Amino acid sequence: MIDYKQAGMRRSEYETTVRALGREPNETELRILGVMWSEHCSYKSTKPLLRTLPNKGERVWAGPGENAGIVDIGNGYGAAFKAESHNHPSAVAPYQGAATGVGGIIRDIIALGARPIASMDGLFFGDPSHPRTQSLSSGIVSGVAGYGNAVGVPTVGGKTLYDPSYSENPLLNALCLGIVRREDVISSKTAQPGQLVVILGSKTGRDGIAGAAFASVELSEDSKASRPSIQIGDPFIEKLLTEACLELRDKGLIVCMQDMGAAGITSSSSEIAAKSGVGMRIDFDKVPLRAEGMQPWEIALSESQERMLLIVQPEDYEKMAAVAERWGLDCAIIGEVTEGDRYVINWFGEEIVSLPASLIVDDCPEASWASRSPDYESAWTPREPSRSRDSSDMRDTLLRLLRSPSLADKSWIYDQYDSMVQTNTIVGPGAPVSLLRIRENGNMIAIALESDPWKCSLDPFRGGAESFAAGVRAVAAAGAVAIGATDCLNFPSPEKPEQFFELSEVVRGIAACGTELQCPVVSGNVSLYNESASGRILPTPVIGVVGLIEAPLSWIPSGNWKPGDRLYLVGKRESSLAGSHYQNVIDGKVSGRPMPFDPEMERSFGKLAHVTARKKLAQSARVLAGGGLAVALAKEALASGMGASLEIDPSTNDDVALFGEGGPRACYAVSEQDVAAFEETWRGFPCSYIGAAGGESLRFGSVSLPLDELRDAHSSVPENNGRRD
User: Fold this and answer.
1) 186-363: which CATH number, 3.90.800.10, 3.20.20.30, 3.40.50.300, 3.90.650.10?
2) Is 86 designated active site?
3) Which of 154, 346, 353, 474 has its CA at 20 to 30 Å from residue 412's CA atom?
4) Where are the beta strands (DSSP E) in 52-195?
5) What confidence tens digit (pLDDT) does each residue in 699-715 have?
6) Residue 215, pLDDT above cutoff 60
């Protein structure tokens, strides 16, 4: 018999369990509650924070509480999407950790009855010179590619950043989006007594046992001992499972469906029971197994991949089994939905678990942690505000930024991905925003994935708001209206007061931005305890923003300069170097206070960007992000295969104007015939003519940077990184 500490519970949680049951829990019950009450499953540290996020809106069909969020994209169709982390597994077993992270988020989308059509990844790696960065980064990228390519879901974009804080604790955040008709949406809240509990897909083994608990502790030098907590994925089975589930959906044979992710059978079945307000009986001796001698608690907590839990009507089971057989999948009745709130597990006729479903899912005591603001005043001390540089300084600075791991070309990553399978991808990896054709209704979807951990480290409220706003700006510049968002909150231990303060303030910033910009957060994930013996990660919120472009389609690409196009900067010329890539690369550390969130400016930018796209007033658009104006112009030039003559003199302009970041800003390329209409559209908003496209170099006054020189710098692969042989 294990004790509550071995099960991952605190004493107060154990005492809550005893009071609720009126008895001591047995070992299987204790293990189940220990995993289900882990941070990864219960969100016990963050529930009060997450309740502050906006999640309602006229387009929202489903929000938090379902497997993913769903927003209306027109003509009776919805987009189901969610971001999920798989950080600890990817740190211990990079390939399988990343692969199963992709597989898990795909199944979350399938569970709603949606067909997955696109995925994205947020990758955060350590110092390229760190001895483990090569193996971790190449393994994780290979895992994403190996699973996504084989399962037939295109990886259409993402975000990759490097910082020493991720050297021992890399982050893998996966986003998936699918399409579903409103009448085909499958809920996890509609089970009724008398219905059957069915397991579909792979057999259950010992891989991934207690993986949720593993994800809820700090990484240690002994983490390799946790390899049994890492799931093993099979994308080919996942493809079969996808098609089988969608066929069952089309035939109306599914009442409820839940992915067997964290905590496996236990979480999927108890969550359906608790959400539906019913009880459930599970017969573990009827679960198809691939390992001999498995104990009941192992079956309960196995996270073997490519499995779905379905609730079906008794009269429909034979039809379901026939579909499963045709797709070559295991299918078995393992229980029944019952009256009341009792969650029961039987083992060869013996009742080994009897718990209230609500106790398992809803009644974990919320963790209350102390919060204390760090001393930001010293970090906010302004650096030298601006300094003039000669031409060689500017040239060197821009090339160093383009060469830096976070800003350099990521084609060594995304060239490994199949971004065109399903043939819906209009704009894929390498662009600021990804665009997808929605064949079902003639509209388009824009997706952006953003994160700004350095600004979050200096001012978590402003950094959280900036991370969210950056995604909204990106889809707006393409011509889309932001209709929903998902977040993945990657943070160190919440038990340290200053770290819980960071988490709270980042969420407050996200909530403020989402509310002001009327972009609801409909799904997401929290990943805490991202720290190791070598230190903690930066506060890293990853925001996925989904935008809609309605027919008749009108959108603006990036990297599409034409000879003679007039170039404009919309937004303020100066922003801030605080927490910028410039500081990271040139200064080697970040300082200062990031720009404040300005909701009125953000709303104005979004409105005018939509008008610009709808009226087709620009050839190309790129929001200013990492590296500021100079890097944005360089990336536009490289993508366009064309230089520009810029009315920006680097000998008289300061580093803030050239390399500052933050706030709603974008550079547009406008054809001569559209100049008047473009300038009239942006009247009242800061808008400056900055040059004209053309030639084979990017010219800042007396500085001339040939495209070949820019390309050589930008195409540098980070030291010790590259493709896996």
Assistant:
1) 3.90.650.10
2) yes
3) 474
4) 60-62, 69-74, 77-85, 115-125, 155-162, 171-181
5) 988 889 999 999 999 99
6) no
